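Backbone description:
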Amino acid sequence: MSMDGVVAAGHVATTSGTPRWVPISRWTLWTRPRPAICYILTVNALAVAGTVAGLAVLPINRRQLVFAGILVVGSLAYGEVTRGIERIRRQYAGVPHFDLSSVWMFAAALVTHPALTAVVVATVYAHPWFRIRHHPVHRRTFSAAAATLSAQAAAVMVLVSAGPFVQAQRSAAGFAVVAGAGMVFLLVNTMLITGVIAITTADPRLKNLFGNPGDYALEAATIALGILLAWALADWPVALVLIFGVSLALHRNVLIRQLRDLARTDSATGLLNVETWRACAEVEVANAARRGWPVGLLILDLDHFKKFSDASGQHVADDVLLAVAAEVAGQVRGYDLVGRFGADEFAVLLPGSGPAATREIAERLRLRVSGLGLAAAPAAAGLSVSIGAANYPDVAGSLEELVQAADNALLVAKDHGRDQVQMVRSHIPS
C-alpha cells in the first residue's frame, strides 16, 4: 500500500516522460497543512532511525547479503516484466493504491538484515518512479519509509518470538509467528498510510480512509507469497521460479478485475454508469418482488448546474460533480445502488426502504448537498438539488415504472421552485 494519489503535487514535474526538478523551496509538500508535513517527515525519520539502530545492534552476515541481492534483482526483473500492467493500473487506480510489492518486502523482512530490508524496499519503490511514472519524490519516500517501518516491525516480532527465520524450525508454532508478523506488516503499513490520508483529505470519514475488503485480501495474498518466497530462499531456491510465475498471474488478474470495474463505472464520478445501474436495479427489484420487500428510488438533479458550469469552468464543475457523488454515496448504505444518470443527474436505489425512510433519506441528501460549499467543495457554495422520490410497489409495479414515477416527481420539484423533495403518491398504470 502506498500514498500515490494521496498527497497531491510535489517537487518533480514530468514533461514527455522526463523529470524536471523543482527547487526544494518550491516543493508543494510545504503547502500541505503543518500536521501533514510533520507527520510525513517524522515517519521518514523513524525509518532512518530504525535502519541505523539495526546496523548498530545486529551484524550483517554473508547469507543475508546474498538474499538481499537476489530480492533486489528479482524485484527489478519483476518490475520490468509487469511495467506495462502497472502503468495501466496506476493510471486508473483509486486511493489508496495497493501496489502488490509486499511479496519482495515481506520476504526481505524475514530473511535479511533490517538495513538490507530498507535497501530492498527502496529498490521496490524507486523502480516504478524511474520506469513508470515520476510521482513527487516525497510521496515515494514516504511510502518507502512506511513500508520499511512495517517490515522492521514484522522482523522484530519474528526475531523475538522464534529467532532468525532462516534457522527457525518449520513447525505449526513457527508458522503462527510468521503469519502474525504478516498481520503486523499489513496493520502498521495501513495505519501509517491511513494517517497521512486522514490529515490531508478534506473528508476524513472512515469510509474514505481505507480501501475495500478486496484490496486488503489482495495485500494479504502478496504477504503470503512473501512468506513462500522467504521459505524458498532459505530451503529450496528453485521454487523461486514458481513464486515469480504465481505473482505475475495474480498481477494480471488484478488488472483484469480493475478494467472490468472501470467498464461498470462512470469515469468522472466513480459511480455506477447508467447501464450497470439499471442491470443491478432490475435484480434488486426482482428480489424485492419475491420477498415482498419495498424498494425506494431517488432521482437527484443539481439545480441550474449548466449555468454554474458555464460560469465556473469545466474543471471546477467536474470537481463539484465528484464532491456531490462522494457525498451521495457516503450518505447511503453500502448495498444501495448509486449511479450517474446524466450530466448532472444521479439515481439512488434503496432496497428495503419504505416511503417514510425513502423521504427521510432524500431530505438528508438534499441538505448535505446544499451544505457542500461549507466543507468539502467551496466552489459549490449556493448549489442546491431537486429530488424526485418513489417507492415500489406502492406507486410502481416494475423498475421502469419506478424510474418514470421518480422522474415525474423530479419534474414537479423543479416546477415548484427547486431545492426540494417531491414524492409520488399514486400508482402509475402499466
